[in-house]
């Protein structure tokens, strides 16, 4: 079900990218109503005085919930789960140990896959007019992705989800990175292809994809 609503107090800014998909996907999993302001990167919409006042980073995604204003896809998604999740949707990790293992995976996926390699490839590939050509960095980042993927591949062998045999935030982050990896035509193991193909069958994912990128 599409949870978008003009009356919702929860408001997301930004659509069309792997990072903006994450809060939308989480909200769809949780069944929370939200209003989406579908501004895009590099359209000038993140640079307006009104948006800069909200988010001085001039980036998307961004979230407002009542008085709260929050940037960073990971912080937004974790907030949504902590506030709106439950045992029937996605539940926040409860023990210190579970929280620590989730942090470990999220830091790895976000730090090593998203920011250190995939975004480097994006900056110096499709966005090279802004960030500059850097063929050596591009090649090194591609190799780096392959090294990190081996760790994920070994971990996922025989598992349905990353943690505790139940779907969670680290699965959302990994799936969005695997989509990105597929788009860059980087080789993925059969284990990771099967995992990612299963994740994208989720109803909430399919709805979120349509909302994040209607065309
Ligand atoms: N660490 C941030 C990264 C946000 C980010 O870089 N967003 C890009 C789109 S994916 C953006 O807003 N770019 C606009 C710009 O650089 O002008 C997050 O995970 O939310």
Characterize this entry briefly.
With 215 residues, the protein is an alpha+beta fold.
Overview features:
215 residues, alpha+beta, Glutaredoxin, Glutathione S-transferase Yfyf (Class Pi), Chain A, domain 2, 4-stranded mixed sheet, 9 helices, globular, binds glutathione
Major sheet, described briefly?
Answer: 4 strands, mixed
Mean pLDDT: 96
Number of structural domains:
2
Q: Compute the CA-based radius of gyration.
A: 17 Å
> What string, H for helix and E for strand, traces the elements in order?
EHEHEEHHHHHHH
Let me know the number of strands.
4
Name the ligand types: glutathione
CATH-defined fold name of the largest domain: Glutathione S-transferase Yfyf (Class Pi), Chain A, domain 2
């Amino acid at each position: 079900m599409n949870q978008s609503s003009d009356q919702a107090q929860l408001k997301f800014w930004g659509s069309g990218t792997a990072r903006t998909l994450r809060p939308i996907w989480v909200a769809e999993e949780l069944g929370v109503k939200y209003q989406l302001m579908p501004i895009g990167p590099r359209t000038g919409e993140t640079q307006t005085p009104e948006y800069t006042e909200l988010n001085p980073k001039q980036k998307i995604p961004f979230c407002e919930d009542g008085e709260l204003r929050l940037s960073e896809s990971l912080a937004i998604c974790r907030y949504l789960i902590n506030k709106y999740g439950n045992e029937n949707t996605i539940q926040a990790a409860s023990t210190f140990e579970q929280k620590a293992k989730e942090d470990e995976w999220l830091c790895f996926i976000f730090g090593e896959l998203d920011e250190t390699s995939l975004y480097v490839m994006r900056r110096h590939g499709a966005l090279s007019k802004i960030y500059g050509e850097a063929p050596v960095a591009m090649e090194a980042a591609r190799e780096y992705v392959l090294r990190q993927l081996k760790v994920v591949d070994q971990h996922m062998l025989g598992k349905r989800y990353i943690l505790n045999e139940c779907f969670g935030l680290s699965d959302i982050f990994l799936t969005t990175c695997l989509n990105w990896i597929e788009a860059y035509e980087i080789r993925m193991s059969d284990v990771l292809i099967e995992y990612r193909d299963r994740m994208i069958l989720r109803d909430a994912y399919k709805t979120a994809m349509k909302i994040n990128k209607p065309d």
